[in-house]
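Handout, tutorial session.
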Amino acid sequence: MSQIGHELVVVGGGAAGMMAAITAARLGADVCLVERNPKLGRKLYITGKGRCNVTNHCTPEEALAATPRNGKFLYSAMNKTPPAEVERFFTELGVKLKVERGNRVFPASDRSADIIDALFFELRRLSVPIIQGRVSRLCAEGGAVRAVELSQDGGERKELPCRGVVLATGGASYPATGSTGDGYELARSVGHSVVPPRPSLVPLEAEEAFCGEMQGLALKNVILRMKDRKGKVLFQEQGELLFTHFGLSGPLILSASAHLRDFEKNAYRAVIDLKPALDEEKLDARLLRELGDNANKDMQNVMGSLVPRLMVPVALRLADIPPDRKAHDVTRGERRRLLETLKGLTVRIKGPRPIAEAIVTSGGIKVGEIDPRTMQSKRLPGLFFAGELIDVDAYTGGFNLQIAWATGRAAGEGAAAFLAEP
């Protein structure tokens, strides 16, 4: 088994890993970066629909408030590397940024490749070697990290002697990008506990079959309220959602899914206001007008001016109105049910889609086993964690990448300081 050595091995060439490697190298550490894909940042390429929602233009406090899972753990890292610092970091690397709705920050070019290229060329400037391969084992001796075992194509194995390791392998979402959960097993092998990974920012499966009838229908400017079994509103926002063959997807649903934390013990339902610009009184007046103007038409033909075509039979069925009912024959009770359907189309949620379809993973290395200032393991000196591998996750809007940058920098600084100790 051949050997080549570096002081610090960063495992994972995503956002957190590249930030950790850059940070440590800038502080003088001898760093190499191991990535199993031929190119760095594969998951970054697809974030923000290929535009890369770099961070959120907000305060550290607001970023922490948008992190429902173990946000307090991130207090030190987030205050040391707040969103403003992330924006400055990329601006200094030559990437022009812009702020859009919801304070989402994107490259001005709308190209995620600009973010990845900036990180890659900084790694090159710092002479950080990039090794393609998969770390299959952490080698610990005398209570400290001594090496990692690297498996490469063709079955060749190499041992990389080192004094420190940063694990930034990502979670278990989007496995095609390389996030296959390897980091969990590596951490377990040296005594770490792993909170079972679950999907977050993920489409949702529905009990109702009518979602499949409306497959492909996108609704814009609707209000989604996600309620629990007791009727408590867990999430409310206006925006866009999509009906699919299995249930619901789209930006609103992905955001709402982060609030649904206990499918085993709770029951959730999505309540969609299709006419948020009209209160009930105004909508009722609109319905009366439509019925009066189209008195001799079948309701299946009248409904086209109220809802999209694919929704017409569904809305009539939910309101219990026969499609061939003449408009002038619609009763007050039927009109009321139609109004309630338009203001509160309800979909019972069966559960989330598989973790492979999630944008981020909830769960991971227990935060109680990690020093929140340095991201160093409390179980094994010289081992550091960064990014989605840790049991933290946030809402959509650039907050999860903000966590990656902040924990990546903290891990890089922590590792460099550890290596500088005599």
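The second record follows below. Compare its token runs with those of the first.
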Amino acid sequence: AEVIVKQQDNEFFETMYIRRESIKVLQKIKVYEPFCFSVKVTDNYYLDVQRKVTDCILNMVRVDELIEFFLKQAMRRDVKSDYEYLISLFIQMNTLICGGGEKLKQSMKVAYACAKKVAADLPENKRTSYRQKLTSAVIFKDYDRCCQILLQLSNYTDMTFDFVYDLFEDFEKNKDVIYTFINALTSKKEEIKQEG
């Protein structure tokens, strides 16, 4: 599809070509309002989330950069926002952009359930510590370390994390599984506290 665009700052119109696949992704997105904001990164730079999301969809590129940015933001003590919902939308967007199939969806469901069980069983300081370690390992693309942390956590909680086998097989292909696990590793108490 061909779209004519005019930016407010420009005096001219631009032509943009949109892939059919991108249009299909845009049609499948149920909510778009949560992406309509900017976040301050430095004094001179604001991340325009809506523009970044749109660029990713138009170019059929995963939104990993946004997921990792907001996972990191969620760990900061001075940030009052609850990003769990926003990150879950980004993860859904990745599955729309890249597909993944039923196996990936099932692994993500298992990861979510495991994370919620771990969050309910672990004391807050331990849960926060594991969440920080996993987030750091994923952001720095230290996938071996990430798998080691998951195995330690599995051993510590005496739980079986069946989704880990998919990460061992192909971490990059199943990255949304670990994103889902880290994102769900919050307690209900923390979510209520953040809302109030």
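Points raised in discussion: The chain is about 65% helix and 10% strand.
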